[in-house]
Design a protein that fits this description.
With 220 residues, the protein is of the alpha/beta class. The chain has helices spanning 24-34, 50-60, 67-84, 96-105, 118-127, 146-161, 175-184, 198-202, and strands at 5-9, 109-113, 136-138, 167-172, 187-191, 208-210. The protein contains eight helices and six strands. It has a six-stranded parallel β-sheet, with helices on both faces. The longest helix has 18 residues, at 67-84. The protein is globular.
Length: 220
């Protein structure tokens, strides 16, 4: 039976393990397209849109952003996603796989909130066999900043289900995920497997804080 509850998942650090390999395709695309070396060095990608990150790289290299540059980069990035899709750069985080399937088959509406472009999210989650469980999402092309992306995800989910959700949850690994949940009026489940430590997350008083998904021993 369909439940009138929406659960929004972050991707990197939440569904996908975040480490030095996670952003390799993006980083290689940046270097190849701009003909530079280590263009992503020192750039924090946590909870940011891909476009926002690209703009910072351009600024660091004294280049001005244009849609023409952005569209050219996207073509190179897509070729890198294709190149890496059969490698192990994207691996499941903790026990995300089991929990996502459990919620899906119990009738929850599952959506994504990510700074990833939808094409990147699709490549990554199809590789892990999880893309099909998500109804919709907000992605890097839907807004430059996280709140815009979250608003887009919620709008799409409401339109797809033709409903106002009785309850909403955001699951993520950063402080910005907590702030995003509050922006949407959702409850927040913080997971300690990503960019921010348990101590940093606890300071923001999330509704729940977990180390793995099986720690969620309550019904949403």
């Amino acid at each position: 039976m369909m439940k009138n509850v929406a659960v929004f998942f972050d991707i990197n650090g939440t569904i996908i393990k975040r480490d030095s390999r996670t952003d390799v395709p993006f980083a290689e695309a940046v270097d190849e397209f701009l003909d530079i070396k280590d263009g992503m060095e020192g750039v924090d990608t946590s909870a940011r849109s891909d476009k926002d990150v690209f703009m910072e790289v351009l600024e660091n290299n004294n280049k001005e952003f244009s849609e023409e540059l952005w569209n050219g980069f996207l073509k190179v990035y897509e070729s890198k996603l294709e190149e890496f899709k059969d490698t192990d750069v994207w691996r499941l985080n903790a026990d995300a796989d089991e929990y996502i399937k459990k919620l899906y088959y119990e009738g929850y509406t599952l959506c994504l909130i990510s700074g990833e472009l939808s094409i990147g999210a699709k490549y990554k989650l199809e590789k892990l066999g999880l893309w099909k469980y998500f109804l919709t999402g907000g992605f890097g092309e839907d807004g430059l900043k996280r709140f815009e992306i979250a608003d887009s995800a919620l709008k799409k989910a409401k339109e797809e289900r033709n409903t106002e959700f009785a309850e909403m949850y955001v699951i993520g690994d950063t402080v910005l995920d907590i702030k995003t949940a509050r922006h949407l009026g959702a409850k927040v489940i913080s997971i300690t497997t990503g960019s921010h430590s348990r101590e940093k997350l606890e300071k923001e008083n999330p509704d729940w804080i977990i180390d793995k998904f099986s720690d969620i021993d309550f019904e949403l």
